[in-house]
Amino acid sequence: MSIDFNDAGAQRADGxxxxxxxxxxxxxxxxxxxNISGMEEDDLGLFKASLRSDxxxxxCEFTVLSGPHAGRKLWQIFTVAGGKIxxxxxxxxxxxxxxxxxxxxxxxxxxxxxxxxxxxKAKRSLPGFRAFDGVEFFAKIGIEPGGEAPGxxxxxxxxxIAHVVVPGEAQYAVxxxxxxxxxxxxxxxxxxxxxxxxxxPPKPAWQQSAPAAAKPAATPGSGPSWLKxxx
Length: 231
Hints:
By secondary structure, the protein is of the alpha+beta class. The protein has one domain. 16% of the residues lie in helices and 20% in strands. The protein has helices at residues 92-109, 118-123, 170-176, 191-196; strands spanning 21-29, 48-49, 56-64, 73-81, 136-144, 158-165. Strands 1, 2, 3, 4, 5 and 6 form a six-stranded antiparallel sheet that branches.
């Protein structure tokens, strides 16, 4: 039996999704097998541990649901405990993650970010992190420059969520209606150009100032930061 490939669709484009692309995303959690003390039973085994610090994080996969890049995927982590501690005694990375995750909730459920009524606040109170698995929302995609690879060279650039689109923003209503939004690349300079930019030659020793004293390392807090009542 012959197989006719003439009606097959075009292969997906090579490389990463262009910077500034707006689309709908579906979030999926990739369990890491680690636990955090005090977490809900449904969240057991959901977290991953950093190999370089005491940080614990969620490993998330996002699938593009709309536009010319539908079906493409990107990956991003969100620290939920550990790492550097801020003046409020909470994990600084968790505070950043928490803001993004709240925006995802507002985008997914159509909640006005300025609405702090009891009814809306109740919708933002989830039973656990596993509730994010399968959530669909709108976002603008950005590009994260690849870091230095062991032994020299660079890791390739990768996509990440640059901004979660929430109700009240012009793009939200358009995306909600199923229409496409023109890409809006970030103002950041091209990463490849930044890597290859020439650097100034080092100053002679007699012109160099004395090295600054090293700052003391941050002291990690105990227990997951979300139990400390951080705002």
